[in-house]
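Hey L., structure's done. Input below.
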Amino acid sequence: MRWPLELEMHEFRLFLSWSFGSSNQASLQHLTYHTPPALILTGQLNLHSPVRSMCKYLPVLAIHFLVTTVSFAQTPTPPKHRIFAGTGQGVTNPQAYEAGSPAGPAAKLMIGNPFGIEFSHDGVFITSVDDHCIYRGTLDGASLKRVVGNGLMGYSGDGGPATDATFNWPHEVRADAIGNLYIADTRNHVIRKVDALTGVVTTLAGDGNPGFAGDGERGAKIRFRQPHSVVLDGAGGLLVADTVNHRIRRIDLQTGVIRTISGTGEKKLPVDGSASLNSPLSGPRSLAVDQDSIWIAMREGNSIWRIDRKTNKIHHVAGTGRKGYTGDGGPPLQATFKGPKGLVLDAQGRILVVDTENHAVRRIDLSLNRIDTILGGHSSSDTFPLKRPHGIAYKKDFGYLVADSEFHRVLQGQ
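Output:
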């Protein structure tokens, strides 16, 4: 028996059954054809010997061709999100780590409450606030190891190896072109540096006490109040989100001198288009930089802003300022956030915002005047559920990594 089949699919499954007399039924045949679309196939049915014998002696009362399953089998699409690091278990340390540990494949290593994420040219750094450490890994996830912090909370170790030092909730880390690390040691109220060549840690700014002081000064004459975010500005400076002081400050990395570039100390949202230096801020929690702008996620202000680097004016980008989780599919200025604590720009210039208390990552496309949830939140069933995510970083041709903090893992998204 032959038949022509014109297929508009990649895979066609055909079940055939036929009966002989009132009580005899041949076995069900399952034929599968794999073909590119619109290819004409000719198939041949070869009956097994017992069936041929039955055909010789029994009248064929009916031949039933029953197509029971037609399916499209395309090349599997790679998942848009996957677990990059962490096992989902938190970390509690009664004593300092032994030299060389923890280390191992990223997805098999416990990462307790990851917060900050930073790409270098050939790797990635992840801060962990459960054990107050920073880990460095390869981009393929094959290895991840502790490079900063000994696993205990404290403020010690300046002048010695970074792996022997103690930190207190290192929220964020940045790497410069030669590999020096700049760390927001948040609950020690300081900014610390790890030298790429020696591995030695020092305090770059701050005296370890909360407060506001030191504009025009350097080193221990400076005071912060829980600095959460740092970012290199590409012009020889390190920007610091001095969160509880409601200011953004800039450290000149050649002189060490600090100055305020935005914020008056008043906890209040700025006026769109006003001068950034004289504008209040409401909990600047995370910073990102491109050639034209300094981007700011306001934690208490539940909104996203940017400072124009040419005019030094501040502009409203997204969020009404009220707490909520609305606006997906619509204009970013009409959306609501709940405590955003991370942001980064992707290769298309879109803004990825970690909407922490909504347990979501949202994407702002200013060219389309649109905001959407791309991970967690309203999209949890299609992606991954999140629990109070924090830091996020992006690398072209790799995608983004987000710290799914209270699920103790780092996720990769495309």
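Confidence is low (pLDDT under 50) at residues 1-75. Residues 49-57 form the longest helix (9 residues).

-- N.
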